[in-house]
């Protein structure tokens, strides 16, 4: 039972690490430029605070994921890891929501505010951002599963099911 | 000890309920219009998907907060409440990040994408959104404290501190 639990946890952590690393790399390499009316127009992730926050959050989650992969089997830090998992899940959720809100404006614009969509001009940039968001979304879901799993496993002995 | 724990939890839940309710009401009542070059320009929260998501999330959190206030002392649902607290905290974090990213563009614009700031035209709308975001932020922090508190209290017996 303990061994199955450890294997499931390590598999989930590997998945989460891969997803966050992919999200970071794909977002950092996103770059495209276009020329509209002789005006050079360049799009990269550093142009937007939300995308910068996304890269920083995914990079932190990758680093933490790698460390947690080696430490999660040690019982002395198990309590700290359970709490840090929740914090990292919140960080990921927050960064994805911010980046998604900004990407939505980039994709569809907002006619009420007079903001035009930019994906028509810089399609390569938009594709990269979409890819990075999908990878980040997968990572967030893995962390959610990891949290619910460890909460259920950790909480189980405290609340025995009544017949 | 159990009584102190219950009083702290109820106080935190009351705070969180007040904050989410305030955030919902302030965001829903946000409305301003301006006339630029004979063009009527109206700003309300329904113009933005991120702000709509914010109102829905804060309303759900208010409803849950009210129910949890009455149920949290019953031990039969304690386990469910601990898990739902984490889910609500993530929902709040997500909605605040999305609304904040959109509000940041409204406040400062994004010169790279050609999006102009709108707060100069509709200051009353921007003030309401700022107020709603501050209330939502307070609610998210209260839920974070609530989660860490219940995690520490619940996890404590499982991981005794070694001398």
TrEMBL record, chains A, B:
The membrane-topology field of this record reads: Multi-pass membrane protein
Coiled-coil spans are none
Source species, domain of life: Eukaryota
Pfam families on file: CASP_dom (PF04535)
- Give the UniProt subcellular location, in the record's own words: Cell membrane
Sorted alphabetically, the keyword list is:
Cell membrane, Membrane, Transmembrane, Transmembrane helix
Q: Give the family per the record.
A: Belongs to the Casparian strip membrane proteins (CASP) family.
**Full protein name:** CASP-like protein
Query: What organism, scientifically named, is this protein from?
Result: Hibiscus sabdariffa (roselle)
């Amino acid at each position: 039972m303990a061994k199955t639990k450890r294997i499931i946890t390590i598999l989930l952590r590997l998945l989460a690490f891969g997803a966050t690393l992919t999200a970071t790399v794909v977002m950092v390499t996103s770059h495209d430029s276009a020329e509209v009316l002789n005006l050079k127009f360049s799009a990269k992730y550093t142009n937007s605070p939300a995308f910068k926050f996304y890269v920083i959050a995914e990079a932190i989650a990758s680093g933490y994921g790698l460390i947690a992969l080696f430490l999660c089997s040690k019982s002395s830090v198990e309590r700290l890891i359970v709490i840090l998992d929740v914090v990292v899940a919140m960080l990921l959720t927050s960064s994805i929501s911010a980046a998604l809100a900004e990407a939505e404006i980039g994709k569809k614009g907002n006619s009420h505010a007079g903001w035009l969509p930019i994906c028509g001009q810089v399609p390569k940039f938009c594709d990269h951002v979409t890819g990075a968001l999908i990878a980040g979304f997968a990572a967030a879901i893995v962390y959610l599963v990891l949290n619910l799993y460890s909460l259920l496993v950790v909480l189980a002995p405290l609340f025995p099911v009544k017949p």
